[in-house]
User: Which sequence fits this backbone?
């Protein structure tokens, strides 16, 4: 029996388009190489972009850095030892340390903003909030947030942490008071007199 082998040229496909389509398809659903199953990717809720100005200010630049403070989140005590006073227009580097065994979501903002974030986390507990004033920290991890306070007001830094049932709960808060530049000098001199 003789088999005929076809010598017809194969159909040419647009290789770039096909490669792009395949790369896009396989990058959408991440696979775990060890277990060969689909990994769940949390949805992301975009609240603000990097260039937005919020009630508490905007993302700052390291070039304009004027001061820094360390915030330690252990789940029991406030992240700041005392209320932090800063002048409006200044840029602050917040060094964030998570000493807990669980992930936390650190947010900086006014009381109304933080209450809104808390409600969003309770409603959509698997979603990740995206905003320049929100940092997600893994367990035993550290990060920094460089922030420019553009207007006067009282702001809080709070860590949302999961309770034993997996629900997000607000943890202890730290207070940052931003005063107009000319009134901050008077407040600091009064504190020195005491």
Assistant:
């Amino acid at each position: 029996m003789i088999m005929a082998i076809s010598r017809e040229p194969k159909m040419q496909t647009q290789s770039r388009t096909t490669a792009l389509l395949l790369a896009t398809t396989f990058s959408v659903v991440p696979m775990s190489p060890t277990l060969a199953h689909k990994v769940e990717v949390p949805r992301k809720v975009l609240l603000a972009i990097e260039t937005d100005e919020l009630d508490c200010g905007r993302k700052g630049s390291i070039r304009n850095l004027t001061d820094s403070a360390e915030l330690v989140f252990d789940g029991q005590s406030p992240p700041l030892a005392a209320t932090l006073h800063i002048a409006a227009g200044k840029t602050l580097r917040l060094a964030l340390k998570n000493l807990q065994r669980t992930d936390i979501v650190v947010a900086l903002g006014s009381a109304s903003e933080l209450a809104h974030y808390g409600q969003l986390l309770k409603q959509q507990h698997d979603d990740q909030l995206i905003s320049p004033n929100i940092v997600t920290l893994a367990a035993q991890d550290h990060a920094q947030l460089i922030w420019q306070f553009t207007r006067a007001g009282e702001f809080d830094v709070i860590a949302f942490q999961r309770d034993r049932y997996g629900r997000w709960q607000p943890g202890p808060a730290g207070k940052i008071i931003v005063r107009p530049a000319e009134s901050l000098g008077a407040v600091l001199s009064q504190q020195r007199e005491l």
In short: Confidence is low (pLDDT under 50) at residues 13-41. The longest helix spans residues 15-28. The domain at 44-193 is CATH 2.60.40.420 (Immunoglobulin-like).
